[in-house]
Amino acid sequence: QVQLVESGGGLVQAGGSLRLSCAASGRTISTSHMGWFRQAPGKEREFVAAIAWTTGNIDYENSVKGRFTSSRDNAKNTVYLQMNSLKPEDTGVYYCAAEVGSGRYRARDYASGYDYWGQGTQVTVSS
Hints:
The chain is mostly beta strands. It has strands at about 5, 10-15, 20-25, 30-40, 45-50, 60, 70-75, 80-85, 90-100, 115, 120-125. It contains no helices and eleven strands. Strands 2, 4, 5, 6, 9, 10 and 11 form a seven-stranded mixed β-sheet that branches. It is globular, with a radius of gyration of 13 Å.
């Protein structure tokens, strides 16, 4: 079992920055692909970014490329999502997720590929 707890969300003006953290417990995430997803009101959960533990490869959704950076600190069992140049359309609940034990070279970019989820943290970007 893996427990994931996100933090760092909040209200920020357009153009601002936030850094989300996802702290894991229960088992090490060093052998887990870690993903970030978000869900806006009335919309489906969508992929934001993911890090593969096997290769270190990081994938981003097109709209966040160049603005968001995902990273992991295995010693702290934590993953991060640095979000810069935030836009109102980035508003939503942000979730981190873990896919345990996969040997794939790339992490999945769809929600059903993940085994464990955090409770989410709200990000609101005002215009």
